[in-house]
Automatic annotation (TrEMBL), chain A:
Localization of this protein: Cell membrane
Pfam families: BPD_transp_1
Biological processes per GO annotation: transmembrane transport
Ranges where the record places region Disordered: 1-29
Keywords, ordered alphabetically: Cell membrane, Membrane, Transmembrane, Transmembrane helix, Transport
Identification of the protein by name: Carbohydrate ABC transporter membrane protein 1 (CUT1 family)
GO cellular component, one term: plasma membrane
Species for this entry: Agromyces ramosus
Keyword Transmembrane helix (UniProt): yes
Automatic annotation (TrEMBL), chain B:
Keywords: Cell membrane, Membrane, Transmembrane, Transmembrane helix, Transport
Classification via Pfam families: BPD_transp_1
Gene3D superfamilies attached to this UniProt entry: MetI-like
Similarity remark: Belongs to the binding-protein-dependent transport system permease family.
Location of the ABC transmembrane type-1 domain: 105-297
Name of this protein: Carbohydrate ABC transporter membrane protein 2 (CUT1 family)
UniProt lineage: Bacteria, Bacillati, Actinomycetota, Actinomycetes, Micrococcales
InterPro entries attached to this UniProt entry: BP-dep_ABC_trans_perm (IPR050901), MetI-like (IPR000515), MetI-like_sf (IPR035906)
Location(s) in or outside the cell: Cell membrane
Biological process, per Gene Ontology: transmembrane transport
Natural source organism: Agromyces ramosus
Record's bilayer topology term: Multi-pass membrane protein
A cellular component annotation (GO) from this entry: plasma membrane
Membrane-spanning ranges: 38-59, 109-131, 143-167, 173-192, 230-252, 272-296
């Protein structure tokens, strides 16, 4: 079944009625063609759903971003008129976009790093079998499977300065002088060796939350990779007298790098677009206003649909540029993607 | 080579590892012992970090709010103040002074179950087509799937909000299910495709030879062999639909009778009238179905998601 390229099929002359081999190939080809048609039919429900619920709205969002509309006008206005660059001008010249972008990038780098760090450590410590390993593994996955609304609510209560368990513990056991308002304080001044260092408390807290909630995702894939590794190189290293650190650094780690690269890319895309976690934890207050929360606020508070769309288009374009750069760098290094 | 030198060399060969054994192992062994302890400490820390929030949720949900405010540092409630009133409060309908979570549970269940059924009905043929049938544009479809996950959900939320308002789907559970389908079908297809490809092609060809149609092959041969994958995919879709928050917020926020549990909890946790402990009971109600489902099917689910990742 090799004659699947459409060009080939079109190029074949009409079959001669006498030659037996040709008629056999024709029959085979009709099966392939039949399969192709069936394939398309089977795929069509998915395509219809994606086109109507994802692709069309996307295109419309781009159109709206070039129009000046409010939420009330949008349904009635002519979708193909009144094009203007007003929204982009406003969005790009306002400080809100750039400061939220800086926040988003810091937030993304911090949480992707934590997710991969925690995920790798967790996968390494449960690598060798022990009693209860299945349960431990399942427990590690809980933050990822539990509903985001429930876990953000529990975190908010745990970190509450008045009756949260973390501040109680900090004050009673660790000797903190005052409770720390983890989710409402934008910047804290820490005195270290006579220097005052500004620390973005709330932003760091949401980054840690992100690390906690999504490390299971990295854990799952790194664990699968570890289980798929052959044991021989490590046994050989052991025989040659390599210590645990050397074995990890020179044998295990190089085998993990590809999957970690994929995880980093996936997590970067998702964290960049992340909305729920920050919206539910801080509502975007205290220096945690990431881009998607800003879009939401443009949409619901200011009711400026055009600006909200322009903002999200800018975000998507930035993401595409970053991914494109990544692919280029990888290509240049000669790695297969 | 004389026997003397040979034996000297042999002695050296024998001695070398012996010397190494004398000098190396203690350091290495100490390192290993240290790592062994470190490993258990790390496992314990991770367990505390992952389990404590859920434990805290459960413990707060059975305490009266006064007790929490009086004595916030005690984790374990005393036995005589243990209460299930919080659960009654959160589940009872509004007309009886409760928060109406039983209705929300019903809504969430309707949305999640319909999403699972429809995602499988739409996704199975799609996954089979991608795994087996050489139709035109097969490669482009994967690009389309990737694009679905590249853009922030909020960008498509704006036009969807408008469209659904106009055709009257916005304030309904049906509209929500349609959006969830668009979000879950691509992952579902990806998971099932990986599995369908492991079904030997020869088995399917035998079916074709025996006169089955393609659909017949899919229905009678491939699907029965792929039950684990179908279960895992269904569960994954269920979790996404049950946990989803943004679109529920955008579409249903002004229709309280249609709130899902996630939306209900997030809306009520902003108000001061509802005591924290009652909301904790609500969180337990929201989380428990997912956790139970997850523990019942953990192996299936993790295997289904990472299938193919072993090869790196």
């Amino acid at each position: 079944m090799t004659a699947t390229e459409p060009g080939l099929e079109q190029a074949t002359p009409p079959p001669e009625p006498t030659a037996a081999p040709t008629s056999r190939t024709r029959r085979r080809r009709t099966l392939t063609q039949h399969d192709a048609r069936t394939g398309f039919v089977l795929m069509s429900p998915t395509l219809i759903i994606l086109l109507t619920v994802v692709v069309l709205p996307l295109i419309w969002a781009v159109i709206i971003s070039f129009q000046e509309l409010t939420l009330i006008q949008i349904g009635t206005a002519d979708p193909f008129s009144g094009f203007t660059l007003e929204n982009y001008q406003r969005v790009l010249s306002s400080g809100a976009l750039w400061s939220s972008l800086a926040t988003t990038i810091g937030y993304t780098i911090g949480s992707v790093f934590l997710v991969i760090l925690f995920g790798t450590i967790a996968a390494l410590v449960v690598r060798r079998p022990f009693r209860g390993r299945t349960l431990v593994r399942a427990a590690f996955l809980l933050p990822y499977v539990a509903p985001v609304v429930a876990v953000t609510f529990v975190w908010r209560i745990m970190l509450n300065p008045e009756f949260g368990i973390v501040n109680e513990f900090g004050q009673n056991v660790l000797g903190w002088e005052a409770p720390i308002p983890f989710l409402t304080q934008a910047v804290a001044e820490w005195e270290v060796l006579g220097l005052t260092i500004p620390v973005p408390t709330a932003l760091l807290t949401v980054i840690v939350f992100e690390g906690w909630r999504y490390f299971p995702f990295a854990f799952l894939f790194i664990m699968a990779r570890l289980e798929g590794m052959s044991a021989e190189p490590e046994e050989a290293a052991l025989v040659d007298g390599a210590g645990p650190w050397q074995t990890f650094r020179y044998i295990v780690w190089p085998q993990l790098v590809p999957i970690i690269g994929v995880l980093a890319v996936l997590r970067t895309i998702w964290t960049f677009n992340e909305f729920d976690d920050i919206f539910l934890l801080t509502g975007g207050a205290a220096g945690t206003e990431v881009a998607s929360v800003l879009v939401y606020q443009l949409l619901t508070v200011q009711r400026n649909v055009g600006a909200a769309s322009a903002m999200s288009v800018v975000l998507a374009v930035l993401l595409i540029i970053m991914l494109g750069a990544y692919v280029l760098i990888m290509r240049r290094r000669g790695e297969k993607l | 080579m004389s026997t003397a030198t040979a034996s000297a060399v042999a002695a050296e060969v024998v001695e070398a590892p012996a010397r190494r054994r004398r000098s190396r192992p203690p350091a290495s062994r100490r390192q290993r012992a240290f790592l062994g302890t470190l490993r258990w400490v790390t496992i314990a820390l991770f367990l505390i970090a992952t389990l404590l929030p859920f434990l805290y949720m459960l413990l707060l949900s059975v305490r009266p709010i006064e007790s929490l405010l009086r004595d916030p540092s005690s984790l374990l409630p005393s036995l005589d103040e243990l209460t299930l009133e919080t659960y009654r409060d959160v589940l009872a309908p509004v007309s009886e002074g409760g928060q109406g979570f039983l209705t929300f549970l019903g809504n969430s269940a309707i949305v999640a179950v319909s999403s699972v059924i429809l995602a499988l009905v739409i996704g199975i043929p799609g996954a089979y087509a991608i795994a087996r049938l050489p139709f035109r544009g097969r490669r482009q479809v994967s690009g389309l799937f990737l694009a679905t996950y590249l853009f922030p959900a909020i960008i498509i939320a704006i036009p969807l909000f408008v469209i659904f308002t106009r055709i009257g789907l916005r304030g309904s559970l049906v509209g929500l299910v349609i959006v969830y389908l668009a979000q879950t079908v691509p992952v579902a297809i990806y998971m099932m495709r990986n599995y369908f490809q492991t079904v030997p092609e020869s088995v399917e060809e035998a079916g074709l030879m025996d006169g089955l149609s393609r659909l017949g092959v899919m229905w009678r041969i491939t699907l029965p062999l792929s039950m684990p994958s179908l279960m895992a995919t269904g569960l994954f879709v269920f979790m996404i639909a049950w946990n989803e928050f943004l679109f529920a917020l955008l579409f249903l926020v002004d229709k309280r009778p249609l709130w899902t549990v996630s939306l209900g909890l997030s809306q009520l946790s902003g108000s001061i009238e509802v005591p924290t402990t009652v909301l904790m009971a609500g969180s337990v109600v929201l989380t428990l179905p997912i956790i139970i489902l997850f523990f019942l099917t953990e192996r299936l689910l993790t295997g289904g998601l990472t299938a193919g990742a072993e090869k790196g």
